[in-house]
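Pilot study result, target chain (369 residues):
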Amino acid sequence: MLLLGCGGVGGVLAAHLRARGVAVEIVTHNKAIASALCRHGIELRDGERVIHVPAHAEVNLPERGRTYDVILLAMQPPQVEEAVQSALPLLAPQGTFVCFQNGLCELRVASLAGKERVIGAIVAWGGSMISPGVYERTSKGGFTIGTVDATPNRWLDWVATVLQTVGPVARTTNLLGARWSKLAINCAISSLGTIGGERLGVLLRYRFARRLGLEVMTEAVEVARASGVRLEKVAGTIDLDWVALDPRERFQLGSPSLFAKHALLLAVGARFRRLRSSMLAAIERGRPPAVDFLNGEVVSHGERLGVPAPLNRLVVDWVWQIASGERRPSVALLRELYDASAALRTTEPGSWQPPRPTPDSTEQDFRQL
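Predicted structure:
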């Protein structure tokens, strides 16, 4: 088995797999990470535990002529298609790629390798790289796995068994519905985390941040519905069809249903309080952000379907401005985004106007719902 990419998710995967004796070769184009792994192995901080695992990593793909039955794809979405094109000669004829990215990368990989050679693994836990070779698992959880259009894949059972060493594995025959639900959440969590520059637990204490998250997810859900996608519950509990704001709620400051939705986001913030945006980490390492594969997917699909997603478009623009150095991430910047979003009100279907909180809106505003 070959693992491509050793950032936050890839590093945590590698540590757990190798600690359980799973034979996995690691390739990362980041020379600092490869050097650290070869010298010191992998250090994984998982709650109060610190695990040290011997490891070796290469910066280049193995020579052609070798083949692998399973190739794990753990790089950021912007690098996925190039990685697949480079690794295709190494994939055995009946082998499979396994996608761990957020977004809709399985469809991109399927267009290059064929949908019968793609497994999607939706990650329900958080991981980050503190420094080259040093990783932190920021939350517990497992995976939801499936194939594009429920296409049979001979490696699905084996992959499920291997991933059980990292966390519990659930199966789905509706991978696209599960992906769109996770996409909606990540459009809020990862992208707003990039703009806010803080861990999730800090950001979701602010009422305006939670409201932005609800609005971003609502646009994503509207586009998914227009695409004919049947949304799946995330981790079997979070129902995006319920989380999405209805037309009345989009113009309200408070109601019992809004109170419940804010309470849900507070609970998410508490559970995943240490989660830090992998997109922000990529920007800090000089890599392009994956926002085009998250909020950008919502915008592009919405354009084709005639469903506007103005807030997601604004998020895309601001994340790229952070990547270029025009803006600096902070809670204050996230509040600026909230204020700027007021100008998005139109009379078109799917349009909205965010409620106007008091200038010092903080956690105490939750009582005003």
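One observation from the pilot: The mean pLDDT is 89. A full batch analysis is planned for the follow-on phase.
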